[in-house]
Amino acid sequence: MTAAQTSAHPLVAASGLTKRFAAPRSLSDMFSGHQPHVHAVDGIDLRIARGESVGLLGESGCGKTTTGRLLLKLTEPSAGSIAFDGVAIDTLKGNALTAFRKRAQLVFQNPFDALNPRFTIERVLAEPLVNTGVERASHSDKVEKALAQVRLPPLSRFEGLFPHQLSGGQLQRIVLARALVLEPDFIVADEPVSMLDVSVRAGVLNVMREVRATLGLAALYISHDLALVRYVCSTTLVMYLGKIVEQGPTADLLKTPLHPYTRALVNAVPVPRVDQSHEPLPIIGNVSDARGQPRGCRFRERCPMAVARCAEEEPPLRDCGQGRRVACHLA
Amino acid sequence: MSNQPVLDVRDLSVEYRTARGVVRAVDGISFSVPKGAILGLVGESGCGKTTVARSITGVLHQSARIAGGELLLHGRDLVSGPPKAWLDARWREISFVPQSAMNSLDPVYRIGNQIEEVLIHRGGKTRAAARARASTLFEMVGLNPGRLDEYPHQFSGGMRQRVAIALALALNPSLVIADEPVTALDVIVQRQILDVIRDLQRRLSLSMILVTHDISVVAYLCDQVVVMYAGRVVESGGTRDVLERPRHPYTMGLTNAFPDLESAAHDLVPIDGSPPDLSQSLAGCRFQPRCPFALPVCSSDDPQTKTAGSGTRFACHRHADSDMLRRQSRDIATWQRPQ
Ligand SMILES: Nc1ncnc2c1ncn2[C@@H]1O[C@H](COP(=O)(O)OP(=O)(O)OP(=O)(O)O)[C@@H](O)[C@H]1O
Ligand code: SF4
Ligand SMILES: [Mg+2]
Question: Which residues of chain B have pLDDT under 50?
Answer without folding.
Answer: 1, 338-339
